[in-house]
Amino acid sequence: MAALVPPSTSAAIPARDPAGNAVDLWPRGTPGAEGVTVREQVVERNPEGPLRDRFAQHVTRPSLTLFAPKSAWNGITLLIVPGGGYVRVVIDKEGFEAADWFTARGFAAAVLRYRMAGDGWAAGADAPVHDALRAMRVLRKRMLPTGTVARRTGIMGFSAGGHLCARLITEPALDYSRYDHVDEASGMPDFAVL
User: Fold this and answer.
1) Which residues contact 122 (CB under 8 A, 6 or more apart)?
2) Separation between Cα atoms, residue 73 and residue 55, nearest integer Å
Protein backbone atom coordinates (compact mmCIF):
# COMPACT_ATOMS: atom_id res chain seq x y z
CA MET A 1 0.00 0.00 0.00
CA ALA A 2 1.33 3.43 -0.93
CA ALA A 3 1.81 6.09 1.70
CA LEU A 4 -0.07 9.35 1.46
CA VAL A 5 1.84 11.82 -0.66
CA PRO A 6 2.17 15.23 0.99
CA PRO A 7 0.25 17.91 -0.94
CA SER A 8 3.48 19.78 -1.76
CA THR A 9 4.83 16.79 -3.72
CA SER A 10 1.62 15.52 -5.31
CA ALA A 11 0.79 16.08 -8.93
CA ALA A 12 -1.70 18.90 -9.41
CA ILE A 13 -4.68 17.29 -11.13
CA PRO A 14 -8.34 18.28 -10.93
CA ALA A 15 -10.67 16.65 -8.40
CA ARG A 16 -13.15 15.83 -11.16
CA ASP A 17 -12.31 14.19 -14.45
CA PRO A 18 -13.18 16.66 -17.21
CA ALA A 19 -14.09 13.77 -19.54
CA GLY A 20 -16.21 11.97 -16.93
CA ASN A 21 -19.92 12.46 -16.36
CA ALA A 22 -19.77 13.34 -12.64
CA VAL A 23 -22.92 13.84 -10.59
CA ASP A 24 -22.92 15.31 -7.07
CA LEU A 25 -24.76 13.05 -4.61
CA TRP A 26 -25.80 15.93 -2.38
CA PRO A 27 -26.39 18.88 -4.76
CA ARG A 28 -27.53 21.32 -2.03
CA GLY A 29 -24.50 20.57 0.16
CA THR A 30 -23.22 17.46 1.90
CA PRO A 31 -25.10 16.82 5.16
CA GLY A 32 -23.28 16.82 8.48
CA ALA A 33 -20.39 19.00 7.28
CA GLU A 34 -20.42 21.43 10.21
CA GLY A 35 -17.29 19.90 11.82
CA VAL A 36 -15.41 19.18 8.60
CA THR A 37 -12.26 21.24 8.01
CA VAL A 38 -10.38 19.04 5.50
CA ARG A 39 -9.94 19.92 1.83
CA GLU A 40 -10.62 17.39 -0.91
CA GLN A 41 -7.55 16.41 -2.90
CA VAL A 42 -6.65 14.01 -5.71
CA VAL A 43 -3.14 12.55 -5.68
CA GLU A 44 -1.32 10.83 -8.55
CA ARG A 45 0.69 7.97 -7.04
CA ASN A 46 2.93 7.38 -10.04
CA PRO A 47 3.02 10.42 -12.36
CA GLU A 48 5.65 8.79 -14.57
CA GLY A 49 3.82 5.45 -14.86
CA PRO A 50 2.15 4.13 -18.01
CA LEU A 51 -1.29 3.98 -16.32
CA ARG A 52 -3.09 6.53 -14.18
CA ASP A 53 -3.09 5.61 -10.50
CA ARG A 54 -4.91 8.30 -8.54
CA PHE A 55 -6.69 8.43 -5.24
CA ALA A 56 -8.99 10.99 -3.66
CA GLN A 57 -8.55 11.85 0.00
CA HIS A 58 -10.72 13.96 2.29
CA VAL A 59 -13.73 13.74 -0.04
CA THR A 60 -16.05 16.66 0.70
CA ARG A 61 -18.29 16.43 -2.39
CA PRO A 62 -19.31 12.78 -2.74
CA SER A 63 -20.10 11.97 -6.35
CA LEU A 64 -20.84 9.38 -8.98
CA THR A 65 -19.01 9.19 -12.28
CA LEU A 66 -21.38 7.63 -14.82
CA PHE A 67 -20.29 5.38 -17.67
CA ALA A 68 -22.55 4.29 -20.53
CA PRO A 69 -22.33 0.75 -21.94
CA LYS A 70 -19.97 0.40 -24.89
CA SER A 71 -22.00 -2.48 -26.35
CA ALA A 72 -25.71 -3.40 -26.26
CA TRP A 73 -26.98 -2.55 -22.80
CA ASN A 74 -28.00 -5.59 -20.75
CA GLY A 75 -30.36 -3.50 -18.55
CA ILE A 76 -28.07 -3.66 -15.50
CA THR A 77 -26.39 -0.74 -13.79
CA LEU A 78 -23.48 -1.50 -11.48
CA LEU A 79 -22.41 0.84 -8.68
CA ILE A 80 -18.66 0.36 -8.22
CA VAL A 81 -17.26 1.23 -4.78
CA PRO A 82 -13.44 1.49 -4.80
CA GLY A 83 -11.33 0.69 -1.77
CA GLY A 84 -8.66 2.69 -0.03
CA GLY A 85 -8.65 1.63 3.60
CA TYR A 86 -11.25 4.26 4.54
CA VAL A 87 -8.57 6.95 4.22
CA ARG A 88 -8.74 7.40 0.44
CA VAL A 89 -10.76 6.32 -2.61
CA VAL A 90 -8.70 4.57 -5.31
CA ILE A 91 -10.08 6.22 -8.43
CA ASP A 92 -8.50 4.41 -11.37
CA LYS A 93 -7.47 0.84 -10.49
CA GLU A 94 -10.58 0.00 -8.47
CA GLY A 95 -12.94 2.49 -10.07
CA PHE A 96 -12.63 3.72 -13.65
CA GLU A 97 -10.75 0.63 -14.90
CA ALA A 98 -13.45 -1.66 -13.46
CA ALA A 99 -16.12 0.54 -15.06
CA ASP A 100 -14.37 0.26 -18.43
CA TRP A 101 -14.29 -3.54 -18.13
CA PHE A 102 -17.99 -3.81 -17.27
CA THR A 103 -19.20 -1.26 -19.83
CA ALA A 104 -17.36 -3.21 -22.56
CA ARG A 105 -19.63 -6.12 -21.58
CA GLY A 106 -22.93 -4.25 -21.78
CA PHE A 107 -23.32 -2.86 -18.25
CA ALA A 108 -23.93 0.77 -17.35
CA ALA A 109 -21.61 1.67 -14.48
CA ALA A 110 -21.16 4.37 -11.86
CA VAL A 111 -18.05 4.85 -9.70
CA LEU A 112 -18.65 6.19 -6.20
CA ARG A 113 -16.39 8.78 -4.57
CA TYR A 114 -17.41 8.64 -0.90
CA ARG A 115 -16.60 10.43 2.36
CA MET A 116 -14.15 9.18 4.97
CA ALA A 117 -15.31 8.56 8.54
CA GLY A 118 -12.26 10.24 10.10
CA ASP A 119 -12.81 13.60 8.41
CA GLY A 120 -15.22 15.00 11.00
CA TRP A 121 -18.62 14.23 9.43
CA ALA A 122 -21.55 14.26 11.85
CA ALA A 123 -22.47 10.73 10.71
CA GLY A 124 -18.98 9.46 11.64
CA ALA A 125 -18.36 5.89 10.45
CA ASP A 126 -21.79 5.83 8.79
CA ALA A 127 -20.97 8.69 6.37
CA PRO A 128 -19.55 6.36 3.66
CA VAL A 129 -22.60 4.07 3.96
CA HIS A 130 -24.93 7.06 3.63
CA ASP A 131 -23.12 8.00 0.42
CA ALA A 132 -23.59 4.48 -0.97
CA LEU A 133 -27.29 4.50 -0.04
CA ARG A 134 -27.71 7.87 -1.69
CA ALA A 135 -25.81 6.66 -4.78
CA MET A 136 -28.17 3.68 -5.15
CA ARG A 137 -31.15 6.02 -4.91
CA VAL A 138 -29.69 8.48 -7.40
CA LEU A 139 -29.08 5.63 -9.87
CA ARG A 140 -32.68 4.46 -9.49
CA LYS A 141 -34.14 7.96 -10.00
CA ARG A 142 -31.76 9.35 -12.59
CA MET A 143 -31.97 8.88 -16.34
CA LEU A 144 -28.78 7.02 -17.23
CA PRO A 145 -26.50 7.68 -20.21
CA THR A 146 -28.44 4.83 -21.85
CA GLY A 147 -31.54 7.07 -21.97
CA THR A 148 -33.59 4.83 -19.67
CA VAL A 149 -33.78 3.42 -16.15
CA ALA A 150 -32.07 0.13 -15.25
CA ARG A 151 -34.01 -3.14 -14.84
CA ARG A 152 -31.61 -4.12 -12.05
CA THR A 153 -29.08 -2.12 -10.06
CA GLY A 154 -26.25 -3.87 -8.24
CA ILE A 155 -23.25 -2.89 -6.17
CA MET A 156 -19.66 -4.10 -6.25
CA GLY A 157 -16.96 -3.14 -3.77
CA PHE A 158 -13.20 -3.58 -3.64
CA SER A 159 -11.40 -3.91 -0.30
CA ALA A 160 -12.78 -1.20 2.04
CA GLY A 161 -15.41 -0.64 -0.67
CA GLY A 162 -16.44 -4.29 -0.23
CA HIS A 163 -16.79 -3.69 3.50
CA LEU A 164 -18.87 -0.61 2.78
CA CYS A 165 -21.13 -2.69 0.49
CA ALA A 166 -21.48 -5.36 3.18
CA ARG A 167 -22.57 -2.74 5.70
CA LEU A 168 -25.11 -1.36 3.23
CA ILE A 169 -26.76 -4.73 2.60
CA THR A 170 -26.64 -6.06 6.18
CA GLU A 171 -27.44 -2.94 8.21
CA PRO A 172 -30.64 -1.48 6.68
CA ALA A 173 -31.22 0.77 9.71
CA LEU A 174 -28.22 2.93 8.72
CA ASP A 175 -30.41 5.32 6.76
CA TYR A 176 -30.03 9.10 6.90
CA SER A 177 -32.67 11.83 7.24
CA ARG A 178 -34.55 12.43 4.01
CA TYR A 179 -32.68 14.92 1.83
CA ASP A 180 -35.04 15.31 -1.15
CA HIS A 181 -37.42 13.37 -3.47
CA VAL A 182 -34.58 11.04 -4.58
CA ASP A 183 -34.78 9.40 -1.15
CA GLU A 184 -38.17 7.92 -2.05
CA ALA A 185 -36.28 5.25 -4.03
CA SER A 186 -34.86 2.13 -2.42
CA GLY A 187 -31.22 2.23 -1.37
CA MET A 188 -30.89 -1.55 -1.37
CA PRO A 189 -29.18 -3.16 -4.38
CA ASP A 190 -30.74 -6.00 -6.35
CA PHE A 191 -27.43 -7.88 -6.00
CA ALA A 192 -24.02 -7.36 -4.43
CA VAL A 193 -20.47 -8.49 -5.18
CA LEU A 194 -17.99 -8.05 -2.33
Assistant:
1) 31, 32, 33, 34, 35
2) 29
Beta-bridge mates of residue 125? none
Closest Cα partner for 175 from 166, 186, 165? 186
Strands in the chain per DSSP E: 21-24, 41-44, 54-57, 63-67, 76-81, 89-90, 108-113, 152-157, 191-193
Residues 124-183 pLDDT 10s? 999 999 999 999 999 998 766 667 778 899 999 999 999 999 999 999 889 999 999 999
Beta bridge partners of 67: 109
Closest CA to 80 of 55, 97, 68: 97
Report how far apart, in Å, the C-alpha atoms of 77 and of each of 14, 21, 106, 120, 141 are.
26, 15, 9, 31, 12
104 φψ region: left (φ > 0), alpha (ψ -120 to 50), beta (else): alpha
